[in-house]
Model the fold of this input.
Amino acid sequence: MTNVLLLIFTISLLYLGIAHRLLTYIKILAVQGILLFGIAFIELIQINAVNLTLILLETIVIKTIAIPLFLQYIMKRNRITRDTEPFLPNFISLIIITLIIIATFILSNTITDSRISRIFFVVALSTLFTGLYIIATRHKIITHVMGYLVIENGVFILSLAVGNEMPVLVNLGILLDIFASVFLLGIFVNRIGDELKDVDVDQLKSLKD
Amino acid sequence: MISFVLIILASLFFTGIIIRTKSITSGRKGPGIFQPMQDILRLLKKGAVYSKTTSFIFQIAPSIYFASVITAIMVIPLGAYKGIISFEGDFVFFAYVLGVGKFFNIISALDTGSSFEGMGASREALFSMFAEPAFFILMGSLALLTGHSSFQQIFNSLHFGSSISYVLGILATFVLTIITMVENSRMPFDDPKTHLELTMVHEVMILDNNGFDLGLIFYTTSLKFAMYGCLIANLFMGDFPLYLTIPIFFGMQILFAMAIGLLESFTARFRMNHNAQYILALSSVSLLIFLGVLLILGLFN
Done:
């Protein structure tokens, strides 16, 4: 069952590559939260009840409900346009994300450590690299934060793979979520729209004596 | 043999069910489910008019297109029962026989010398090209999973043991459904009801065909739908006895037709320049099926 959820998670990464609108990104992030809830519930059923409740509440309340709603609110308040504005066409994004998945699969094959589950490793690493790729190739600041959230989901998956032995790692993964919400609050408080306006170099051209 | 007869039977009502579903979802009663067949019969009774600029290719192309699809249908099994033709590696034969039909369709469109038809032909070739790797990666992974290389053996020994193989079945259904939509030029990729030649794909290629030829092309579309429906139904049959496979077959065909009708009612068409990436996404999904198969078999350990 975990494998099923992880495969669906990987398909959501491909969808992230070809999505055109910010609203679709937000929906994908919410779906990823639900998938992470399922994976965490199945994998971490053995750890103590308080910690498990904390982790499950974090995935379902913060990842699935709070962050997407907050992102949507920021988009409305700061009047961010709905297009994702990638530097590269989505067609190339799709090919690159597919290549990332293949590359991590081959990479995982070279690692001969029997303690780590291979499919967790593949999905976590490809999520990490996809997040990095999205940060590198999208124009807007809010998309960078979304890419960071994707990276953070990848870290969470990797920590789940070893969560039964070391529950502390999962909690550390949750701390990254708080870090991401600080980013979001920064955008919220400073009313940053599509990009940072105050570093507009064009204004200097009007300085003449 | 039994699959051939059943596919022909299913093709009689398939497009009718799609049109009926679309009518009901848009609040109309709609024509009976055999109405498309009656239209095709009316067309088949007519003669054909050929333009003077066309050569013999334009005249033979619809028949070759029809014949290629009939030949492809002969390969398809029904559960444990072989098709009329069955040999090792027949899924390659299946794909390229369909390719021959498509090739003749394309050059007959170019033969008319109309600028619109050349455009449609170019698009059709591009979209089929992107759909091909998806089909081969899918069938290749199923062949790897079962260890056989003909349709009948693959579908016969396809068993759903672990939970991951259920996902493979669902993903395979998804990939085959979208391939059907691409190959038949249906809604998310092409709108069969559009009236603007600039945005057509398949419809613009048959603008000059009329009478008997047009009827043949319409019936071929219906046959292709039933053919892919049978492929999807095969994924869920295994080696069941005949009294179970026939109800499964007809159930799947009706479900598939209704699903296509619903999909066409509720989705808008993709922008033409975005089509290629959506079709290529299909290849990525089948690549995931391939990785899933490798995980099941433990080949990557």
Remarks:
- Chain A has one domain: 2-193.
- The two ends of chain A are 71 Å apart (CA to CA).
- Chain A touches chain B at residues 1, 3-4, 7-8, 10-11, 14-15, 18, 20, 89-91, 94-95, 97-98, 101-102, 105, 108-109, 118-119, 122 (CB under 8 Å).
- Residues 32 and 80 of chain A are 23 Å apart (CA to CA).
